[in-house]
């Protein structure tokens, strides 16, 4: 009997986290609809979430505002003690490194009791924190005030991130009428985010959408992954992926020029 109680208690944080993901997703959908902004979202199963495997997902909620910006949220429940449930230091370090590579991944957590979430989308987004991984420790220690998810979304809509590959890669993935990738938000894995938000390489923007889809599929099929969840291994996996990407892109460009 005691062991069953322990198991049940262990499930409570997961249940609350799943409910919070749902509340955030519903609020984002309603808020973007009010502002006439296209919104797509996907909540991958836990076994599909692994920041160290680049063809998986680096958060609980994968979202996109049209083809102008993506937003990945790693959702946690903030307890009365101020700590986050299911906090993982390795995950924090990994997301911190991905953020340094321009991947738009943020920690999201409740700034109020879960019972305070209501039907009003703006209210719910305002009581949800959206914190960049490098700032998480200072926010949790109350050294820095947390920004709300509403503020972050407003900024992304008003001033979308700039980069040579963002719009063309997001459009190729998300627009189901443009290619044969069975495209949609569910295909926005970590490696595709790394490719889209790579500010140093503009080679993809020189390809057609069909060619971009072919390149993305080729990279996906290679299954680049870190040997473990350390930042060093993650760095190596990303470097291997980028090296392979350059070869594939160059091959497509050579084929185009040869036609």
Which features would summarize this protein structure in a list?
alpha+beta, disordered N terminus, five-stranded mixed sheet, about 260 residues, about 10% strand
Task: Describe this protein's structure.
With 259 residues, this protein is an alpha+beta fold. It is 48% helix and 10% strand. It is built from nine helices and five strands. Strands 1-2-3-4-5 form a five-stranded mixed sheet. A hairpin with a 3-residue loop joins strand 2 and strand 3. Helix 8 packs antiparallel against helix 9. The N terminus is likely disordered.
Brief description of this entry?
This protein is an alpha+beta fold.
- How large is the count of helical segments? 9
H/E element sequence: HEEEHEHEHHHHHH
Number of strands: 5
**Anisotropy-based shape:** globular
Helix-strand blueprint:
Elements: H1 2-34, E1 39-42, E2 61-65, E3 69-76, H2 89-100, E4 105-110, H3 121-126, E5 128-131, H4 136-140, H5 149-158, H6 166-174, H7 190-196, H8 209-222, H9 231-258
Parallel strand pairs: 3-4
Antiparallel strand pairs: 1-2, 2-3, 4-5
Helix pairs in contact: 6-8, 8-9
